[in-house]
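can u do me a favor
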């Protein structure tokens, strides 16, 4: 396959960060890109299998951070978009307002309800087609019935929270108006009380009321994806950044670097030592400013590896973040299979 000269190797593998702009930002994937220097740049499946890695760095209740190494940016971005827009969840789609005397308009309140994340396993429901009637297998029904009252000096229900949404296992209480009729109910689908449909967070403020005001409604939930509406997105955010590296090209003026970027640079036995940039990301923007100095720019290289992505995924709480990653990879695999079958 040949070997590239060092400067071309760096251009191929790294994006170089300058004080104002970045250089070599394009991915050099063309097979004939370096033919003139005797280097075969064609994609190789065996090399990909050997170099591709996913390393989990942090896994919490609602957050996962992982490194994806040895992948093209297009694939990394595909995974990010799948996490945001293509993993199915359950959200409130139809709101049937019975009475609303609060100051919030019906359509505004319905929109707020739609954005409340719901702790419901999407695998238990099927998608409801537009012409299909609501039934046990495609709809979950919640009821909200709150009246604000004054009892002496105490005002009750002046704040309406998501915890006041109550699941109706037998479906709609006004089937003639909603067209939602359950044959046998949904109690068997959620036999454990802890798994009953509910909002992810019980303390989401939905509305404020004054004594005498009330809100009565039914909220019908269906299965969907984030590409249809953001309320079905299972993540608060999913993003990535490139893995940073700082390299000493020659011996610079060390004192300024150590004082401006503590931790990243250190003087050991009279020599400047560069520590791992990943552990000192807070000072990297200071390093960018120092690169405006020509002497520093010639001595220090601040760059980012083009095929090393650091993903951060924050779940909205509907599904665990590890499950989100698993489902996203399965969807990406299915897309690749469909493409392969079409060729």
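np, heres the sequence
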């Amino acid at each position: 396959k040949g070997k590239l000269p060092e400067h071309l190797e760096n251009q191929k593998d790294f994006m170089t960060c300058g004080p104002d702009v970045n250089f070599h930002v394009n991915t050099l994937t063309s097979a004939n890109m370096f033919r003139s220097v005797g280097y075969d740049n064609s994609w190789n499946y065996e090399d990909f299998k050997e170099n591709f890695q996913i390393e989990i760095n942090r896994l919490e209740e609602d957050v996962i951070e992982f490194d994806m190494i040895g992948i093209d940016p297009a694939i990394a971005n595909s995974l990010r978009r799948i996490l945001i827009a293509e993993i199915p969840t359950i959200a409130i789609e139809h709101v049937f307002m019975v009475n609303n005397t609060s100051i919030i308009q019906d359509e505004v309140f319905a929109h707020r309800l739609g954005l409340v994340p719901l702790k419901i396993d999407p695998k238990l429901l099927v998608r409801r087609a537009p012409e299909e009637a609501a039934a046990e297998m495609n709809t979950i029904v919640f009821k909200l019935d709150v009246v604000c009252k004054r009892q002496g000096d105490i005002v009750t229900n002046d704040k309406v929270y998501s915890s006041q949404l109550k699941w109706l296992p037998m479906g709609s209480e006004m089937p003639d108006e909603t067209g939602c009729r359950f044959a046998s109910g949904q109690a068997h689908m959620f036999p454990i009380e802890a798994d009953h449909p509910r909002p992810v967070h019980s303390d989401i403020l939905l509305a404020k009321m004054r004594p005498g005001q009330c809100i009565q409604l039914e909220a019908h939930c269906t299965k969907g994806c984030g590409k249809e509406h953001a309320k079905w997105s299972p993540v608060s955010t999913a993003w990535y950044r490139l893995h940073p590296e700082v390299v000493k090209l020659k011996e610079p003026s060390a004192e300024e670097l150590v004082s401006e970027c503590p931790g990243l640079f250190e003087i050991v036995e009279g020599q400047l030592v560069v520590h791992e940039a990943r552990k000192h990301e807070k000072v990297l923007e200071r390093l960018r400013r120092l690169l405006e100095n020509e002497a520093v720019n010639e001595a220090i290289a601040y760059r980012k590896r083009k095929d090393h992505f650091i993903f951060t995924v924050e779940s909205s709480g509907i599904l665990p973040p590890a499950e989100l990653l698993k489902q996203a990879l399965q969807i990406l695999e299915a897309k690749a299979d469909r493409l392969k079958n079409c060729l």
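Residues 321-342 form the longest helix (22 residues). hope that helps!!
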